[in-house]
Amino acid sequence: MQRAPGAGRPSALTLLEVLVTVAVVSLLVAVLAPVIARNIEDARVARAKNEVQVIAAAVGAFYKDTGHWPSMDAGGVYGGVTTLVGSNAEAAMGPGCTPGPDPGNPVDALGWRSDASRPEVDYLRNHLLENRPKGVAAYPTSGPQAWRGPYLDSVPNDPWNTPYLVNIAATDDASGIDKGFVLSAGPNGRVETPFAGGRASSVSGDDIGTVFFLR
């Protein structure tokens, strides 16, 4: 028997069926996209919270080994470096930060520094991954107070690709409590936590950070 033309072939979708399918898919995307985006952002915040704790623990381990905070400058003087940055933070944080007295260093008004070309700023890796403060000096590697690093496996940027900041300017506080601050600028990439002469004890805005104390 000869099959009739077109018999046995699946029929094509009608225009109405196509429109209904597109409408359903669009509705699902509209409903699910914000949920997915929120879950992704929550995961980033959780990662940043974990990483600031890991960095703070590494700084604490450094202190217990050496008897000093990671603040040696290129001349071997302790306390010369007051801020450590994960990488070249100035370009990453500059445009969105609160303007300060020095337009080239906009986080200065908040008590932070981010330009590693300054004498009081150095890279985090030079103290916790490698023993070469400011790329020149070195902590003692023998004796009871020796550098026994590395104290970190790596120095990542935060989940929004902004460098972490470690402020150790208050490590000789008159109250007798040594403390430091590890900070992520958070989702908006802007440092909003004032360090106010080293007396800050909590984060501001959407910053993510931790204060660590050693008596």
* Largest sheet entry: 5 strands, mixed
Mean pLDDT: 78
Secondary-structure-derived class: alpha+beta
Give the domain tally: 1
Describe the structure.
The structure is a single chain. The chain is α+β, with helices and mostly antiparallel strands and 215 residues long. It has one domain (50-214). Helix content is 28%, strand content 11%. It has helices spanning 15-66, 89-93, 125-128, and strands at residues 83-85, 121-123, 165-167, 178-184, 208-214. A 5-stranded mixed beta sheet has the order 2-1-3-4-5. Mean pLDDT is 78; it is low at 94-103.
Topology of helices and strands:
Layout: H1 15-66, E1 83-85, H2 89-93, E2 121-123, H3 125-128, E3 165-167, E4 178-184, E5 208-214
Parallel strand pairs: 1-2
Antiparallel strand pairs: 1-3, 3-4, 4-5
Briefly summarize what is shown:
The chain is 28% helix and 11% strand.
List its traits.
5-stranded mixed β-sheet; 28% helix; 215 residues; 5 strands; 3 helices; alpha+beta
